[in-house]
């Protein structure tokens, strides 16, 4: 099935692509302006950038030199000198230091992929398509003159609203104002038409509303016509002639001068507020600089964006006379006497208040003393209260504030209240829901309330929804099939257990009616959309997050019959499902009879019967049950949607279009609904399926079938038995040639049973637990000590909390107190009733009663005593000497464990040490899994016998695929700062080869070969036998140039590898430097260069990200340092600002070793050693901007490795020379005591520092297939 769907999609995409190529484009744009006009305008707007950043939302942000920005092309600004900061900022009574905010930091999406360099400004790139959407090139980026809220107007509302713009605002007028400020709640309102918009903003106004209005505006907006999407975006606007010929949005014309390099006007902002959920707001401040007269814009409390020069304005060159705050929408249908459904604010009326309606708070004005104060005589205004309204408030930390907005129309039960002009409301969501309910819920002759909450309507059989289908308008109901398949098998006849549905306890439907479960409003609202209600959200291919464990058979079939085992699987989240079903398919048509658990559809976790059909591969046709026209029901006792009760077996047959449950004929699918399936089915599938809605490589814990693997067989695993198909003679025969299919056999499996039993016939078992281990990162504190451990701050011990139902604790968690709580432990669930067992007893391995340390009373550490054949994988901690309960944790069966060892130190005393645990054997093929627990190791004795877990199915199904790798790396790609004095920069390998690097062969040193840019002429494989090496160009100038690398052509090379039993993904990020510079020494207070010591040609350095495959979160980062390195927890790292998840590393001067913080790290002791200097500078490698995945072996050939990666020789020559002369030369410069200290240190200099010896490539490093050292 999946193959067919993908083929159709590909052909469609191919046809569309060819059509696009063949379509001529002489005149571009639906408005008729030419490509030449477009090109000229784009050239004016898109200035050559120093750097461009691709945003996840599709925007391209150009980092343009601040002096080249569009503003300075304005005739009044030709000789303008950019002012880099205002001379004065207004004081506020609601500063951030005085007012706590419920809001979270707002960021712009492009920040995740980098920032603009110093002395540049970020400008959203304008594209050809943006101009095509405008009414004309000249009007691109300009507002309509109608976009002016006129609260003083005495015109009737009908006249005001006919201009197409509507407002809900608070304002202050007839004063002298020098600015305004507010916190503006951020939402993403629905915009109905592409030429409409919805915004929230501040207006600073001067002049009159007719012809010479001056206006400065800023806020957020959703504008499909301007931006080509419906994202919420930050914007500014200005005009000096009432929107006639001057001004524009953002930087789409000359005028506004930007100075900030972190905020892009027109860029999308996130996160956004949700109804009844978290609320977010942005702070906007506009004020007039009293010295220069410019109007400045500030975003948030720290981003001063830029200014509008005073020379742009007439009235505003002095002051503003009116300030407005609020929302605005465009109603493009006003001239037709209709009203848009475009929302303002949150789409809710002001009365709904916090968390529902949108707000402005801390509304202030700037007075003549340049101070922010509460405005006086505030008034409110709306064009049409039935559509959008405003409600003011005052006092408290919110100061002057108001709620505003609306949905454009009001629905009160079934009465529609128009806002203007008798709008037809058929497209409003509430109306759509009511109309859909009316279609589905046919007037019943009788209704029955079920114990489980369902209402069953007994609908006249001729009125059921099926007959709304165009093909069934004149259909005559067939009450029985003309022929029922006869059985031709050796199966023993056995009456199936009667199937019951709970509602039958309270009554039965009359004759000539059918039982239909009533659809409630909540059922429809749980759907992805009103239109898609009742339809499958995903197709049955694995690409949609669906996983299956099934059997299939190919041939010519006319039906199927089977007995299906019924269980109630656990479903983790509401939009997932677990089901058991059969598919009958032909071409792209499918007809199904199934059992499923689907909370997202039914609102509960009850087991329900259902049917489904489609005739176009889950496109526009078909639905569940009777949620659309199609399936004709004829049973008054069985409703395809209703919960089954006290049933362990289900006998389902679908001999071509008829469906039978047990002995009850439920209904049929008329042949006219189908194309290829009208004649026969070409394939039949039986088995289970689940929806996995987890992202980032994670897997759901939703169970399939019984939640047990197929290999556990009868009474544990779920099954299908007596599986039969209907042949061309309408005879039921045992199914043959079954083929098993599973998407993820780590989570779900299928196994065919042994034939021969007349009771079982052809049968198979299927199912599984989904994710059977769970990473828990929430804890309850048990005990702390405040001395010992790293930084002598003590340690804290925790019990895992919020453990999922069915999972057991394996051990407690501990960490030192020198950093914030950051960690996890695994919990597990028993798959077969014998994988986990409670301990037999506990042994007290440590107690702190006698220790004279700061502690929360005494602590007691207990080791579980496991049963025979089981291992303990963690310890417990208590605050009493009483043994813990035996069911507090579980031990693990021995064959599911591996040996482990102490890892990082957590805490210690004279009696012993506490350390993390890790598997002894670690690497890409190693199966050991870290549990996250700790061990106690007494002084001078062996540690307790604890184990790690073992991944017994190392098939790498938990690892990210190609697209997921991109998402992970774009999220966590580190920034590496080079020292400001660094002269030996990195480059790409291709740049190095293309700029003259040479390949030498032993015995032919006089005839080196140039290297192809992709390294195709490098020797492949072999070993590092000294027969080949690389070197710099021979030409002296070329050599010096290549030694210094090229930062602009730097590329990060990624090796993606499984680690710790594939429970983590390691992304090793390799950087290449053409040259490693000379070392420098520090001898007490003297710094000395070390000559040639430390120099070598070719330098490979790396950073490794370790990301959890359970949660997709960054856990640790490894920083390579010379021949070693260090692991750091993510909580101990510096991250790029603005809420970014991108860690920061610092490369040392000349040596390029990686460190977590800027400063000096000395390789030595007693203040004598080799310097490793790091510092932040403008020389930075943003690894997310230029990277290449060069290896991911677990993908099985999905990544093509570049030839240079399999070059196993040296990347630089080996040059032996005596360092004695260099050491003596340096020593001569030092006085006696320092000389002695230096000479003693020189004897300890690591071997890799002495002599010039090029490194081998990444693939020959020990960490390539193993763990980091």
Automatic annotation (TrEMBL):
Top-level taxon of the source organism: Eukaryota
Keyword Signal among record annotations: yes
Domain Neprosin PEP catalytic: from-to ranges: 159-412, 538-774
UniProt-listed InterPro entries: Neprosin, Neprosin_propep, Vps62
Gene3D superfamilies the record matches: Outer-capsid protein sigma 3, large lobe
Pfam families: Neprosin (PF03080), Neprosin_AP (PF14365), Vps62 (PF06101)
Leader sequence residues: 1-20
Region (Disordered): 1004-1023
Entry-linked PROSITE patterns: NEPROSIN_PEP_CD (PS52045)
Keywords of the record: Signal
Keyword Signal applies: yes
Name of the protein described by the UniProt record: Neprosin PEP catalytic domain-containing protein
High-level lineage: Eukaryota, Viridiplantae, Streptophyta, Embryophyta, Tracheophyta
